[in-house]
Design goal:
Layout (H helix, E strand, L loop, with lengths): L2 E5 L5 E6 L6 H4 L5 E7 L6 H10 L3 E7 L8 H13 L7 E6 L1 H13 L5 E6 L2 H7 L4 E6 L2 E8 L4 E5 L8 H17 L3 H8 L1 H4 L7 H18 L14 H10 L6 H18 L5 H13 L11 H8 L11 E7 L2 E6 L3 H9 L4
Parallel strand pairs: 2-9, 3-4, 3-5, 5-6, 6-9
Antiparallel strand pairs: 1-2, 7-8, 10-11
Length: 356
């Protein structure tokens, strides 16, 4: 049985969760003469599953390979995709299918958003991070020397197919990496996610428990509801960046050698510290962050001497307004808000909680 989660807004679409979903692709790209299936190297085994129903529907299908991971999110790689689309003579009625992890859906989505000023894209995420976060919401982007995801476009997909079959072969470290975004959804909107983790921590750390599907669907629902209200991050969508301000700075400082989920995990502990020391969040909820994240195997500490460099990187965060630095914090469990320009003493106290 498949679960359909609608995402509203100016360009509504569905996120479908289930098994054997590739058969839905021809309908999502109806009218396309050519479909470019862009797949990262880590998921080559999924490509035939995706291309077969498209070819059977009489659509010309061309596979375009791309590197996997954050290093693929560069202007050079986008240029390679543009060149590939041009070689295929892709028109506005054609479509792109992105197969891979969160970095792949980010960069392929951006290439689709900018080719002919926008062609259809369907996301087929193959990692937990892609399923619950990157592939949903219509945000696309690449990285620059100035920071992560600072260049991009809002380009909602024609659909997202979350095929749970990939979980059977998903490495444990990829599941753990994605759990950071699942836990984030629990803290900002749906505490039932945290209760599911507490009920069976071992299963939550591997994705092999009976609650795996519910964790995925609940996380997608959180993002879908927020994005439906605020596509372009002018309001409540900022709350989805909980833990990401410090997290993105860590990724930049580490030149993307640290996985996104690990960086966001550390960032959430820092954000909880900001809430605590800024007088917003109670101690029990703040302490629950590190405890829950460690339960599933995520890191909660970073280099003690890194704060000056991290502060410099955070000055170009997308939530900043001029010289005003803004952080997403919690006022209580399930109620996020914005903390603007916290005093240096609050930032230092919060960072002391992650300084390892």
């Amino acid at each position: 049985m498949s679960t359909v989660i609608p995402v509203g807004g100016p360009a509504p679409y569905d996120v479908v969760v289930g098994h054997g979903l590739a058969e839905r692709l021809p309908k999502l790209v109806a009218g396309a003469a050519t479909v470019a299936v862009v797949a990262d190297a880590a998921v080559a085994d999924r490509v035939p599953v995706v291309t077969a129903p498209l070819a059977a529907a009489g659509i010309r299908v061309e596979v375009v390979p791309i590197s996997d991971g954050e290093l693929a999110k560069s202007l050079d790689h986008v240029g390679e995709l543009w060149d590939a689309f041009g070689a295929l003579r892709m028109t506005r009625s054609d479509a792109v299918v992105a197969v891979g992890g969160g970095a792949t859906t980010d960069v392929v989505g951006f290439a689709a958003a900018t080719w002919l000023r926008g062609v259809r894209v369907v996301h087929v995420p193959t990692t937990l991070l892609g399923m619950v976060d990157a592939a949903v919401g219509g945000k696309t982007g690449i990285n620059t020397s100035a920071g992560k995801n600072l260049v991009g476009a809002f380009h909602p997909p024609a659909g997202v197919l979350v095929d749970l079959e990939v979980l059977a072969t998903l490495p444990d470290d990829q599941w753990v990496n994605g759990m950071a975004e699942v836990i984030k959804a629990g803290f900002i909107a749906d505490p039932s996610i945290l209760d599911l983790i507490d009920a069976d921590p071992a299963a939550a750390a591997t994705g092999r428990g009976t609650a795996a599907r519910e964790l995925i669907e609940r996380s997608i629902l959180v993002k879908a509801e927020v994005v439906s209200q605020d596509l372009k991050e002018s309001g409540p969508r900022e709350y989805l960046n909980y833990g990401h301000t410090l997290g993105h700075a860590i990724e930049q400082l580490e030149e993307y050698r640290i996985p996104h989920g690990h960086a966001v995990s550390i960032g959430m502990v820092f954000a909880a510290g900001l809430g605590r020391h800024g007088g917003r969040l109670d101690d029990a909820t703040a302490d629950r962050h590190a405890a829950t994240l460690r339960t599933v195997g995520l890191p909660t500490t970073y280099r003690a001497d890194a704060l000056p460099d991290l502060l410099d990187a955070m000055r170009i965060d997308k939530k900043a307004r001029g010289s005003v630095q803004r952080f997403v914090v919690l006022d209580r469990l399930g109620q996020p808000s914005i903390l603007a320009d916290p005093p240096a003493a609050v930032i230092e106290a919060a960072y002391a909680e992650v300084a390892g």
